[in-house]
Amino acid sequence: MTSTTWQPSDGSVTTSPATPPAPQKPAPDARYLALRNFAISISALNVFGYTLLGFEQPWLWPIFAVLTGYVAEIAFETLTAWAYRRTPRYRGRGGRGVYEFLLPAHITALAVNMLLYANNQFWPIAFGVVVGVGAKYVLWAPISGRTRHYMNPSNFGIAVTLVLFSGWVSLAPPYEFTENANSFWRVMIPVIIITAGTTLNGLLTKRIPLIVGWLGGFLIQGFVRHWIWDVSLYGALGVMTGVAFVLFTNYMITDPGTTPMKGRNQFVFGASVATVYGVLMVFDVVYTMFYATALVCLGRGLLWWALHLRSKRQQQRAAAIRANIVGDGGTSS
User: What is the distance between the alpha carbons of residues 61 and 39, in angstroms, rounded to a whole number?
Assistant: First the structure.
């Protein structure tokens, strides 16, 4: 901010008004940037998957899945807003507000369709999308003073679908991510995903400690199962070289809305998922990564509810003690 001193012909000295500072642009919203980049990444992966890589689901299904996700998100938000007598979050900011509001549903829908395989039946995919989107409106917990959803939407929709319809629904075969690629691209595709995912998680979601905990815990559980249960070490750790594992590490387990914010807590969360994975593998449970993530998210939500209820009981006891002290003082006087 500057001012100018000037002297008119009568000899008086006058100072001009200060120049107002240039308006500063608001800092970019890290959450929006992360969601936008996630949505762009998964959309690009689907386009390349259906045109170049070898995705085996019908090509119309990602479109149907996204439309299903949009309708479910708007319907659940409208119902919730009506129940709590507030304005729906997609209203009030024009098209940009609707676009930002639908980004999570877009990501969930494409992830569920990409990672599930239901042969020629679309309704299990639609079911998984609706469950994933709806979980955000049902499974809430008081976390760090705020009420937030605690279930990873995409992971939860996939896990519930696999539990209920495992007779004719399975995970998409991992080979489809490189089925039509030559030897060069079979190496480069994981490298590109790792580079893009690490950049996204390092700069925007800040989930590198979680990834470190997950990868470190995965290595440890592999060695433990090899030493104690004589599991092939290549079989236990070879999964880490696949595209599916790389995608899960960079784009599924790191969901910023359902994982801790502090670095130490992130590390514990990632290591916990790896530990539960190892336990489930000992009992020959299939689709292990998705079930392990769902169980850890569920345990985290239940823990927050337990802490909240304990705090409420302590507050009630303190209030009762204060009331007794006041009552005794009034009686004695």
Answer: 17
In order along its 333 residues, the chain shows pLDDT tens digits of 444 454 454 554 455 455 555 555 555 677 788 899 999 999 999 999 999 888 999 999 999 999 999 999 999 999 999 999 999 999 988 999 999 999 999 999 999 999 999 988 999 999 999 999 999 999 999 987 788 999 999 999 999 999 999 888 999 998 888 888 888 888 888 888 888 888 889 888 899 999 999 999 999 999 999 999 999 999 999 999 888 899 999 999 999 989 999 999 999 999 999 999 999 999 999 999 999 999 999 999 999 999 999 988 999 998 888 888 876 665 554
For residues 74, 80, 82 and 87, what is the CA-based torsion angle, rounded to 10 degrees? -70
CA dist list (Å): 321 to 111, 150, 328, 333? 52, 34, 10, 18
Beta strands in 80-184 (DSSP E): 116-117, 140-143, 146-149, 170-171
Per the CB < 8 A criterion, the answer to whether 193 and 250 are in contact is yes
pTM attached to this predicted model: 0.87
Q: Which residue has the tokens 């092939």?
A: 232
